[in-house]
TrEMBL record:
GO terms for cellular component: histone deacetylase complex. GO terms for molecular function: histone deacetylase activity, hydrolytic mechanism. It is found in: Nucleus. InterPro entries: HDAC_classIV, HDACs, His_deacetylse_dom, His_deacetylse_dom_sf, Ureohydrolase_dom_sf. Keywords: Chromatin regulator, Hydrolase, Nucleus, Repressor, Transcription, Transcription regulation. It catalyses: N(6)-acetyl-L-lysyl-[histone] + H2O = L-lysyl-[histone] + acetate. This is Histone deacetylase 11. The keyword Hydrolase applies. It is an enzyme of class 3 (hydrolase). Its EC number is 3.5.1.98. The keyword DNA-binding does not apply. Interacts with HDAC6.
Amino acid sequence: NFYCLRGGRRMCAPSGMEGSFFPYHEDVEKDELMWACVESSLFPSISMAQCSLVFHPEYDISFFGLEKYHPFDAAKWGNVYRLLEEWGLVSPSTVVHPEEATRRDLLIAHTPRYLNSLYSPCVCARIFEMAFLCIMPYFITNKYLLRKMRLHVGGTVAACRLALERNWAINLGGGFHHASANAGGGFCVYADVTLAVRMLLTLNLVRRVLILDVDAHQGNGYERDFIGDGRVFILDIFNPKIYPRDSKAEEAISRMVHVDADTLTDRYLEMLDSNLETVLGEFEADLIVYNAGTDSLEGDPLGRMQLTRECIIKRDELVFQAARDNATPIAMLTSGGYQRSNAEIIAESIKNLHTRGLIQLKSATPAAAPHHHHSPQPQHTNHHAAPPH
């Protein structure tokens, strides 16, 4: 361990940090990276009246109505929440509202040069695949797009941290798996998966992480960020015939499973079950980050797969059951999915997880008092993860 002084405080760095993998940080910047993690406000407090479902009312994107012309359903996240609320499974006071990621938070995952490039409207236009953004000033793109994405990032960090407290967590947004330290693409501007995993590893809250990605697209963003990092095991099940076809990023994939339009439901579930069982038997993870994209649904114009809605629901149940059987905390992100029907399927899947007893949702009773975010931080209870030194 090494010691550093900051503001008159003396703190021991987390054990094992000296050998941590930092793709672009110089050694002299490791202290600042640790302190950025320690002082971040993205780790939420949670009361006993709340469940570890993370959602912010401003997740949805509204851009003067122009978002309707983009293939991505920009109201998906809010629609999922509204269905869960209508079914009496959650209420505003029982879900966790994440904080917006600050620039200092984002620098844990991104280079300054990349974050500065987002001031260019044409860079945002390319990432969001909206050509008209080239003529929009930064304050517009920041207010209506980037800020909302930063809330999603906060949601992913919160979900990963809460999973260690409650054994499960679901961020109704996030999963921007095409964004890396120095690039964005495919509607993914910030590397929320990289950021969350790196924070937990840096603080020694976890030692090893399994990223299970079942989005139809390859998760090339975080894969590029974790090339050579043995603490992160990546099981990526994707269609190799579609975007992004990133052969460099494939170097980081620990176990790669190819699926396409010819992969039917029964075969898909069999492949998922057998590969996940093998991985959990070989790699003792302290956390599963589950990138649960629904663009593998039949009819999706970009995923180009043929899975039924029943398969999506069964898929999520299978993964959460495996996590429980292996006593491993799991954080789920909703990631891709481009049809208007996706929100209902995601909500039905979450409801099924609750019905099966794999998660525990909560709704407020008339006597329940609203929760305020300044409640005390709960103690870490996950028996897998080591506390920070």
